[in-house]
Amino acid sequence: MFDVEGFILVGGASRRMGRDKAQLVFDGQTFIERIAGELSAVASSVSLVGARQPYGSLRNIPDLHMQWGALGGIHAALSATKTDWAWVVACDLPFVTRELFERLQSFAGDALDAVVPVQSDGRPQPVCAFYRRESCLRQIEELISAGEHTPRALLAKVRPRYVESSELGDLPNAENFFFNVNTPEDFEAAARRLNSDF
């Protein structure tokens, strides 16, 4: 249905983790390897955004606005993509799956600018989302010019399709999709979830 490129955001400082989250090994794979493997089922190519060092053979897209957080990463991804739509996924979401990506992508349409899942706590997850390049890139550039740093500000400016957790709940391991690994304690909790669910 779509020719799509995928991008994994790896530019965070990992201060709370104390080491590079992208390089954490989980069930025999780094977080990047896990996410890239799942993204490759829906994307013609997978690239990194904001990497400070090489990660295997994956191409790296440098941030165009340094120290601009996730919104800057989304901007770099959409500036680099050659496709009308692109996936943007944070490197610290190790439980995302190709089934999740396929389901979210199925909601994309001509009247939309983004497809964004909503976590079970009601918060949208803009760093595991599907973006239309032209309209979103234009809005991000305006937001950055105005000093805005948050991806949620982008969602307020475009036409998103929010996908509720109930619309994803039938997928395998859906309760863990947006488990975010920021600290050593989170990593330990993720390992416990992996052992109990797989």
Give a brief outline of the structure.
With 198 residues, the chain is an alpha/beta fold. Helix content is 31%, strand content 18%. Helix 2 (69-80) packs across helix 4.
Radius of gyration: 16 Å
Chain-averaged pLDDT: 90
Give a short account of the largest sheet: 7 strands, mixed
- For the terminal residues, how far apart are their CA atoms? 30 Å
Tell me the strand order in the biggest sheet: 5-4-1-6-8-7-9
In terms of DSSP E residues, the strand content is 15-25%
Report the principal-axis shape. Answer: globular
The helix/strand class is alpha/beta
Order of helices and strands: EEEHEEHEHEEHHEH
Count of helices?
A: 6
Approximate helicity band: 25-40%
* Count of individual beta strands: 9
Uncertain regions spanning at least 5 consecutive residues: none
What this model shows, in words?
The radius of gyration is 16 Å and the shape is globular. The longest helix has 14 residues, at 184-197. α2 (69-80) packs across α4 (133-145). The protein has helices at 31-39, 69-80, 98-105, 133-145, 151-155, 184-197; strands spanning 4-9, 25-26, 29-30, 45-49, 60-61, 85-90, 114-117, 128-132, 160-163. The chain has 6 helices and 9 strands, in the order βββαββαβαββααβα. A hairpin with a 2-residue loop joins β2 (25-26) and β3. The mean pLDDT is 90. The protein has a 7-stranded mixed beta sheet, sandwiched between helices. The protein is of the alpha/beta class. 31% of the residues lie in helices and 18% in strands.
